[in-house]
Specification:
Blueprint lengths: L13 H4 L3 E2 L2 E2 L3 H9 L4 H13 L12 H8 L6
Antiparallel strand pairs: 1-2
Length: about 80
């Protein structure tokens, strides 16, 4: 997990881009979810993306510093893979 990339979750309409969290659930933006479904990625890559989404958007953050250990603990993927 030595690759670094940045995901821009900004939207022109900020009110519609924020997740709605009720009863412990995080709502996904439909465009983001549909783009992810079409993306040619592996299941491991999906798990990493989902963890990053949860750590950032799920907590109402525009960005966060995320360590390989955090991703490893959330996904079950060893930190060196």
């Amino acid at each position: 997990m030595t690759n670094v990339t940045y995901a821009d979750f900004q939207s022109e309409d900020k009110a519609h881009s924020l997740p709605i969290t009720e009863n412990g659930f995080t709502q996904w933006n439909n465009n983001l979810k549909e783009a992810l479904l079409r993306a040619p990625i592996t299941f491991r890559q999906y798990k990493i993306f989902d963890a990053i989404h949860r750590i950032t958007i799920g907590w109402g953050k525009d960005y966060d510093r995320i360590t390989d250990m955090q991703l490893s603990e959330m996904t079950g993927i060893h930190r060196t893979h």
